[in-house]
Each structure stands twice: as C-alpha cells, then as structure tokens.
Amino acid sequence: xxxxxxxxxxxxxxxxxxxxxxxxxxxxxxxxxxxxxxxxxxxxxxxxxxxxxxxxxxxxxxxxxxxxxxxxxxxxxxxxxxxxxxxxxxxxxxxxxxxxxxxxxxxxxxxxxxxxxxxxxxxxxxxxxxxxxxxxxxxxxxxxxxxxxxxxxxxxxxxxxxxxxxxxxxxxxxxxxxxxxxxxxxxxxxxxxxxxxxxxxxxxxxxxxxxxxxxxxxxxxxxxxxxxxxxxxxxxxxxxxxxxxxxxxxxxxxxxxxxxxxxxxxxxxxxxxxxxxxxxxxxxxxxxxxxxxxxxxxxxxxxxxxxxxxxxxxxxxxxxxxxxxxxxxxxxxxxxxxxxxxx
Length: 343
Hints:
The protein is of the alpha/beta class. The protein folds into two domains: about 1-185, no CATH class; about 195-340, Ribonuclease H-like superfamily/Ribonuclease H (Nucleotidyltransferase, domain 5, 2-Layer Sandwich). It contains 16 helices and six strands. The protein has a six-stranded mixed β-sheet with strand order 5-4-1-2-3-6, with helices on both faces. β2 (about 210-220) and β3 form a beta hairpin. α3 packs parallel to α10 and α8 crosses α11.
C-alpha cells in the first residue's frame, strides 16, 4: 500500500509530504497496524488509497457494480453519494470538519484527492494526523447509519479521532524514545570504550567538614596514565564534596589537554544532577553548575555511576589525601597507596 501511496496516488507531491506525512497514513490506515499495536480486533482498516482511487463501496460505486441500492446518501439523504460527498461534503461530514476547524471545500477544485492534498500541504502535522483519524471514524459513522440506522453526534467523531490519535502517539513516541535511548546508550558505550577513563571520589568528615578528593586516569585498555589527590575547602555535605571533587577533576583533565574522557563516580545523586537541566539552589549547586560548564568544553564527557567496589582506586586515593598538606600529582608512576590495586 505504501508504494501505491507514494508513487501512484500522489506522484506530483513534493518530498515534504513523502517524508513527513506518509507515516501518519501508515499508522492509521495500513491494514492491521493499529490493531496489532493496541491489541484490539477492530482495526481502522479504511484503506485511504481506496478513497483516493474512488473504489470505496459508496452507493454510486455499488450501482456501477449493479448492486441494487438506493443511491441517496445514508447520512443526509440530500443527494447521491460519492467519495467526496461521503467524507467531506455531506452535511453531517461538514459538521465533523467544523468541529475539527478544518476546511470542507478546497480552493483548487472539488474532489477528495484535491481536498486531501490541500490539507497535507497547508496544515500542521498535528492537524493532518487528526484529519486522517477523523476520516476513518467518519467512514465508520457512515457504515453505522447504513447497517444500524444510527448516526453518532459529530463531536463524538472528534472525540474518537482524538482518542485514537493519543493512543497512536503514545505507542509511536514510546518506540521512538526506546530507539533514541538505545542509540544514545550505544554511543555512550562506544565513547567509554575509546576514551580514557577517569575514576574520582571524595572523602568527607561530617564532624569537622574536612573534605578530600582523589582521581585516577586510566587508558581505554586500563593502563595507568595519571592520578591526583588532595584536600578540598570545607564542605557542608557529602554531595558538595563530591561536586567539588568532580569540578577539580574536570579542571585537571582539561589542563592535560584531553578532549574526550569517560568519568566514573559512585555518587548516584551527583550523576543524576549532572544529567539534568534543572538548577540546584544550594552550596552544592554552585559546584554542580561549574561541573556542567566544564563538561561542555569537552568533545565527549560521559559521566557514569558505578558501585563503590568498582571505585576502589579513587576512594583509596581520596582517603589517603586527608594526611596531605597539598595536592599531589602523579604521572606515569602510580602513588604507593593504589599501586597494589592496579595489579
């Protein structure tokens, strides 16, 4: 059906319609697509291509096939029924389109294909989706009038179309979000595998507010590259100490000329704040804001939460830093406190 939609029914439409709108038609009118996604037996099976090619079983088409039916429109009983009348021009259909604030007659002429082209070319994607859903429920209302002698109120068509659109949007956006998350996760893992790895941690003494930090830089294959550790200014909370440790570590890494790095921390709260756009109104918030600004200067700087057991190098370095009077930097040769942990 999609081949017919793109190349047979609208061969002259530009790429904007082909690329942006075809998925709308697919999700609402592709046979069984809606029912498979929503677990219902009643699929919106109105094939839009049948309406565009004038092969819907309306009264005039049935008469052409020598089916003995009354050609009068079953909804308004004002004139003979054709596709354009059934879905657009009928008094009942006009009330539906009035509820949706969409035009009933295009400026370019009087046919269903011209009307639909006008809608696709001049209205937003949200309005187009709503119109396509309303076409299906308008057709269901027409069949209800034929077989059950019952015609729902036009606002009911609007409500049903919006409900279907919301259900489709929920499924479609969930799938897109999962795909985006999977892609982002794959990119994150790729950067971590190709970039140097830096483990950092903070030490905090609540009684004295004394704080320290430790950071260990490893190559992508795990070989030691550099380390630093020292005391921090007094901090008022463990989170503030972790944020200050992150800030100093990022400054140290930037000074070493690194453009891409994978950061690892055992502070889940810090990792969460670094991934959010919200501002934090606290002493720790200033340091976290500085960390975000420093991260933005890197081409790639992924921050990953790890358990304390996987952060033994940085934790040991931060603990031993309490006895130091100044920050100690180690290049090539690891500090004695963590040398045993590297083997």
